[in-house]
Design a protein that fits this description.
The chain is of the alpha+beta class. The protein contains ten helices and four strands.
């Protein structure tokens, strides 16, 4: 049996899924005036989905210009604490902390992700978007597990996390560099000005191992647990919207290319 998988996006009031067997075709379900409207459309029609997707909202928040004085203060505090602890203890743990902070200073990945988490947790206006995103994942995970249109109860028991298409990839570097710091903390350096060749080899081997280990964890998707900050429990009404979308996708997927004739006839 062919395993049917779903690709989709969520908006404030609805969801849209690609039709697996029909290229460039998708199905949208949206709640309007207390009723659920479903339709199939050509994904090349950019005006079909008028509301921004939840992924677009998160991406925009992550990439939006920050107030640089906040970033400067953030780094000033972290660097000051790191230098003080390093000067006092002079061991691998605080050397690693200092390296972690200074490396992030180059690209701000960790900083941007921290600011994104704060924004997403504090922003009460995105409650509906967070719920629909969770509902979409619950419906998709249930459909891919049972290979049929799931019930609301089955959707309720499914994971709210995005198993393959992780929205928090922006912060995956956090895990990588956190693991590297743990690795470096195992290498104690008493005096940075008199580091032996053997100590350099050990430190290099530890860093290499933890870079590989961090990438392996990233590939397995363990960092999807961070999505807990980006989702909220959906209502039964929202799950019903997702279920109706999946129901129509399932019907249209079985039609295959005949769906095109139905739409354009």
């Amino acid at each position: 049996m062919r395993i049917r998988r779903l690709e989709g996006i969520s908006t404030k009031n609805g969801v849209a899924f690609d039709v697996p067997s029909c290229e460039n075709m998708a199905v949208q379900a949206i709640r309007e005036g207390g009723k659920i409207r479903t339709e199939a459309f050509n994904v090349l029609r950019t005006d079909a989905i008028k509301e921004p997707s939840f992924f677009t909202i998160v991406k925009k928040e992550y990439e939006s210009p920050k107030k640089w004085w906040k970033i400067a203060m953030f780094y000033l505090i972290l660097l000051s604490i790191s230098f003080m602890l390093f000067a006092h203890f002079r061991n691998g743990l605080f050397s690693a902390t200092l390296l972690f902070v200074m490396w992030d200073f180059l690209d701000h990945k960790i900083t941007n992700f921290i600011f994104l988490l704060v924004k997403m947790v504090k922003n009460k206006e995105l409650k509906a978007e967070k719920q629909m995103y969770a509902a979409m994942n619950m419906g998709r995970n249930a459909y891919e597990k049972f290979q049929r249109v799931p019930t609301i109860e089955e959707m309720r028991k499914s994971s709210k996390m995005d198993r393959d298409r992780i929205i928090v990839n922006y912060g995956s570097a956090f895990f990588l560099w956190f693991l590297i710091c743990i690795g470096l903390s195992l290498v104690k350096v008493e005096d940075l000005y008199h580091v032996s060749f053997v100590e350099m080899l050990i430190a290099g081997a530890v860093v290499t191992f933890f870079i590989w280990f961090g990438n392996a964890i990233d590939d397995l998707g363990f960092h999807r647990c961070l999505e807990i900050f980006f989702i909220k429990n959906p209502t039964d009404e929202q799950l019903e919207v997702v279920r109706e979308a999946i129901k129509k996708v399932d019907e249209d997927d079985r039609k295959g290319n005949d769906l095109l004739d139905e739409i354009y006839s």
